[in-house]
Amino acid sequence: MVLAFLIQFALLTSIYVWLREYSYIFYLIFVILSVSVVLHLFNSSGSPEFKLVWMLPLIIFPVFGALFYIYVDTQLGTKMLFRRLRSLSAYTKQYAPQNIAVKARLKEKNPQMGHFADYMEEYDNCPVYDHTQVTYYPLGDYQFEDMLEELKKAEKFIFLEFFIVEEGEMWNSILEILKEKAKSGVEVRVMYDGMCVLALLPYFYPKVLQAEGIQCKMFAPIRPIFSTYYNNRDHRKIMVIDGKVAFTGGTNLADEYINRKVRFGHWKDTAVRLKGKAAERFTYMFLEMWNVTETKEEEYLKYKTPEEFSMANDGFVIPYEVSPYGKERVGKKVYLDILNTAQHYVHIMTPYLILDYEMIMALTYAAKRGIDVSIIMPHIPDKIYAFAVAKTYYNELLEAGVKIYEYEPGFVHAKVFVADDAKAVVGTINLDYRSLFHHFECGAFLYENSQIAAIERDFQDTLKKCMKMQAADYKKQKLYMRVIGKVLRMFAPLM
Q: Model pTM?
């Protein structure tokens, strides 16, 4: 596949060289094309950081950079996928309308949160729910135990959608239950990201599961054709059982996520279980992604959460999804909203810290106006290059009053925001360009839910195992790591 990509890239380069040498007319056309691309890029909407990254090849290789930009910008595959997802989202809306009384009650309680719910419904098709019981897991180890128990209770359907599936104790234990359920007549569907085929699972693995009565497919399987389509991975983690129970969070289906295998010290991850009405939204999230490659519309009614299945009222929950297509960056907007409306504190756990200007301003402004902004990062990174880039942001944040800590026992893979004992997010969305701009993601926004106290308590417990970063620590890094970090930061929007 790598060879195929290189051949396609070489062909594009050779066409450019041949045409340039063939005639000055072609070269003149290419120069006009380059200028046109720069003007288009400069006047287009979107992140200025992405424009800056594209300016580099356009300046260094004016003509080739323009051709490459046009090739990437006109990819039909991504445009078709975006149209299909919008169509599926509109189709879903008729089955999951907003309960007017629930949103009215939220607006009466907190007008700012009411307007936030308006935004989420309008731009992400994500209603606000009540009557949902939430369980927070401070470690994937604890989540795994409950996942097995809930899977054993399945009577109608089981939907799994994960970024990583790898054979081992975790996946094999789950798979045994899935096989038994499929034999007993439960509908079982499994979807995982196509990147797994490069190192974790064989290309034919879906057929292995289908032989066991389990429907299975890969999202965006890697093929030997160069396309920007592969840049948008399915980074979501969703398990839905009978439309009554849903799990989401940072944990994938591999042994390091439950500390059965040691890779980067102790693996700190988090997740939530939703029981009740809000689980239904994760059912539809899964079905939308599953049906991207299907031609026939699916009857969603049989997967709807039963009306009679309702838990005691415990605040509000907004399950939401993040798409790399279109102009809205919902994952980023959710984090910005928390930072910009915080009154006392915002506490964050994230494995990566690769920020755009807007996010830097939100973090530093919150700290400057007296909000306790604290971030827990890994001390043992999984990706050295990403860690080197993250370090380049430390001093700018520290000087503004943002507190940064590193988890000494190992790697933090958790994606958590908690603020003012009133708001929290647990999901799959990292504080980096990959999650905020390039990947499909999901999360659960909690407001005045009893588990928010448990999330904050976990943050404080984790803090006891962390070392606090100081501005002087940056200079203690090896020189080559500082250089690598600063060079790679130029290409941060692509990381």
A: 0.90
